Records
---
Amino acid sequence: MIPSVLPTYNRADLTFESGEGSWMIEADGRRFLDLGAGIAVNVLGHANPVLVEALTAQANKLWHVSNLYNITQQQALADKLVGASFADTVFFTNSGTECCELAVKMARKYWHDKGQPNRVEIIGFHGAFHGRSSAGIAAAGGEKLTKGFGPLLPGFAHVDWEDLKALEASITENTAAVIVEPVQGEGGIRPMEDADLKALREICDEAGILLIMDEVQCGVGRTGKLFAHEWAGVTPDIMMVAKGIGGGFPLGAVLATEDAASGMVAGTHGSTYGGNPLACAVGGAVMDVVAEDAFLAEVNRKAGLLRQKLEGLVAAHPDVFESVRGSGLMLGLKCAKPACTDVVAAGYDNEVITVPAADNVVRLLPPLNISDDEISEAVDRLEKAATQVASKV
Ligand SMILES: *Cc1c(COP(=O)(O)O)cnc(C)c1O
């Protein structure tokens, strides 16, 4: 008999009842160190007092109004995002995959309105993840995401990760845009080299096509810059942001330049919930903390500390781990012989939460405000998990 919850997830047998900062408390009382943060969502940890205050203050005033009216919290958050980024304008969604839907629509409408309606094709990279909607799975293209869901939304092409020669060769007079995650998340924590991201921007400029960046996982301070592309010193035309931006409240945003967004006039797009007062009150509070230089400096310092400790862990367990990779507090442990899922499961036994990714990688995406002591404790627990896994290979 089918469970009452549609069984699309292989769930671990863990039931968390509360959270405090970097900790999650299981129904049986065990305290888990959370290096998953709900997959890069809880950027300020669990039950952060600043976010609880922003949420409850807004909840007592007004939860939801339609986008048929002015929403001051939405306006304030849009102004913050525009002020802190390349973007001139923002549309709010409730999730990452909805950002993909709009990014695709925006790119196609751009060319339609420029009198080149043939330009509909969007080129992405193998190993990508852009969400589970029809545009999201077509944009990513991987068989794991698309099999059985055809006919897929047409107009997508794919090249190997960082194969810029292949990318250049696949640009035609029908190309509208390129879509890239500056750091692939689900694909196994694969950062694109800064030089390659720069070259990608140049290729798009030369061809006169749009560059869409999917920063749903790597954005909002995760890599130690507010947005990951800042490391390479280049900017996109359209950017997808979600996960961390709501700190746990469902919120996403598409940021764009005035030119890229020029086709999206009144009536061309919408969302019932997108950018409602409750979501934007929380998003505003997240931005106020995360966009501060001092906060990002701390993310970078902690990232260095965690990475150094993980290098030690890899060196001590070459039978379990091959290498550490990633950027900032978006780190991956590439597993040697054992399956990453076995390492994640051993983590559960030792009360530390990590997340599996493709390419046999264990993902570490802790709250950005994790403390030094918690980093040490987390790596101690990972050490125990590694020892446990090693004893079984
Ligand atoms: C999670 C993710 C998405 C999809 O976000 P949802 O909120 O699950 O729809 C899209 N792109 C990237 C890079 C992601 O990590």
Note: The radius of gyration is 21 Å.
---
Amino acid sequence: MTKDWNTRTKLVHSGTRRSQYGEVSEAIFLTQGFVYDSAEQAEQRFLKSGEDEFIYARYGNPTVRMFEERIAALEGAEDAFATASGMAAVSGALTAMLKAGDHVVSSRALFGSCLYILEDVLARFGVEITLVDGTDLDAWRAAVRPDTRAVFLESISNPTLEVIDLEEVAKIAHGVGATVVVDNVFATPIWSRALELGADVVVYSTTKHIDGQGRCLGGVILGTREFIRKTVEPYVKHTGGAMSPFNAWVMLKGMETLDLRVRAMTDGATKIAAALDGHGKLARVIFPHLPDHPQHDVALRMMEKGGTVLSIDIAGGQAAAFRFLNALKIMTISNNLGDAKSIVTHPATTTHQRLSEEQRATLGITPGLVRLSVGIEDADDLLADILGALDAV
Ligand SMILES: *Cc1c(COP(=O)(O)O)cnc(C)c1O
């Protein structure tokens, strides 16, 4: 039944489990454990838990299960496992499936913590990592090998918003039998059909658009039932990366309005990007659906709309960028994204501070680059705020 529902109906109703009280709003089962009627039942439950049978919240919990089923329905995935954070999802998905001697190819424009998992953690345990320019299909072709076990990428990179041709990369990866793992945060589950485009496993930091109101950390791994239950679940449940029931409840409530919020934010970002394009104080405006975006054609194929984030490169470098940030009155300086509140970030001195100047230059993270995560405020108010702050530069 839920398979035939459209997105907004799924976001409100999929996965709902009502207790004997018939509550309207999803219940928070804030319990780590579950009681058994008898010793025999406990024995049976540990042997094999059924649909609505739980043992311990690190393994599963009714509120968390509701969230997992709702997001799996949205994504069109067979199953999902919720995690304590986006990074628990990325590290869980990769570590669960890899072993010493395996080869991984990944795009190099990665969130810093994702890079740490690949280069510091997995490499330490004998996994060989090759990093490529994700927008260069020949580089992917040259990097994959018969022993390539996984291909990892952020479908849209942070903060330079490079768009990777997931469809083509998936074909290259599948040609050598590799599993395609996609961190899909920037594309959002509303605009991206990553599984249809060829991803095998999709990962989200639910901290971003899915909570969308700056409250909780969370993450989720989506894939086939076989992958989630046989590969991911044993690893995550035994290593302790499970999502808390309270956070799952916040995510469930966030999902009810996800489509509405992402559409409003995207409309705002699209309008602001178009208005700023060609502004005299900007060296670049980066937004996937602007015609001058380097992977514009790919972006049109990968996503129905351009997303909720744009980046601008302020002529005059760091000093000019700081003046811009400090002059904003509505947009707040922080480092989250996908929030109802518009957030502005200076990547070179915050999220990407630890990279060397050379690494930042390779990734296009210039001193004047500013990332704008557009919230649900009135787009004209935001545009006036941005134009006013640019005047102050
Ligand atoms: C935020 C983010 C993460 C990490 O998520 P947390 O919830 O902060 O652990 C991973 N990948 C991308 C692309 C992100 O934006």
Note: The pocket of pyridoxal-5'-phosphate is lined by residues 85-87, 90, 111, 113-114, 154, 158, 183, 185, 205, 207-208, 217, 219 (CB under 6 Å).
